[in-house]
Fold this protein.
Amino acid sequence: MSKRMDRHKNGENDLFSREAYRRSKLVKQLDEQEDNYLDTDWSDTDDLADIANEYDTPEAYEEDANYYYEHNQPSRMHLKRKQRRAIYHNTNKDTIDPEEHADSFDSELEVVESSQVTKSPKQKKTKKKKHLILKFILFLLVLIIGYCAGGFYLGQKDAKSEASTLKSQTFNGVTSEDGSKNILLIGNDSRDGENARADTIMILSFAGESKTPKLISIMRDSYVDIPGYNSTKINAAYAYGGAELLRKTIKENLGIDTKYYVTVDFQSFEKVVNSLFPDGVAINAEKSLDLDGIQIEKGQQVMTGLKLLQYARFRHDEEGDFGRIRRQQQVMTAIFSQLKSPMALLRLPYAAGKALGYTANDIPISYYAKIGFSLVKGASSLQRLSVPVDSTWEFGTTADGESVIYFDNDIETKAISKFLAQ
């Protein structure tokens, strides 16, 4: 060993200087692991055989040479190797002769490029355990993704196999300036015919710093300018030109861009709720109601899809559309918050696929995956806004005798922007 050190001290080989950084890094690793080697019991002959074969190699000698070059003395690990070799040589005739590598020291220097510090048995077990845990986590992740994707596909397929009056529409959605991809939610009574007005107009957004779901409800009697048509109620835009014209109308009057749309009729809404919550939805009814023969008593209760629909539709009281908007938002909050229950989460992929299969929409599957976690996580903290906002509107009557709601577009646009930015 000293002969080889002299060759390098005399400058006959400059590989040490070229590999100085790599060697020093290797030496540091050796020093950090010396205690693990020193604490190991090497009395077992089989272990000694492995150690002898493992350390009596060009790589092992190179490591010792690196340490000697840096510290000008043999490492404690080198001394321990010598002890282990001595024990092994005394108990076994077949052994490795270290001198066989004496003449190949120059080539041993090149091993630094690919050499790795050998782990102790304890470290090897720890590393193996970590690999097993990592593999298990990866397998579990693949299993969950497969379960969700398969359930969603089957649910959507089952729903679309049933007869539906809803058809896909043209919708040239636009991403908001802040990058948000807002969803336009449209509820209509298909029983009124193909050109029925929108009964419900909502926008679901994940904008702002909180990234929690935000729900904006637009009153159907809001008096607006409809592109290409006369000014009238906003819900007429859907009857005139479907989801696309409603999108343009909202943008022109309220300044909100929407990227995707979802349209659901009354029958589909009932099926959607029953698919997601076969045992019903828990909700606290704010008053007793009776609509189309469906009676609802005030107080906490569990509603089926049909009851929940009638509760959200009712508007035949002194509050009119204002009370209806409030109940619709209450229904949406109840649905979102109960998505977090363990049983709902298990059936969510299939139920979500089936629910969306009942609707007309253009939301890509990739976006479902993106917003799904945020929707479930922030369901209980759903933020809500009604447009026009309080104290910014007034009732009026058009020349045709229609009762409408007048408001200032600029005021509403600023209120919406502030709400979304929160």
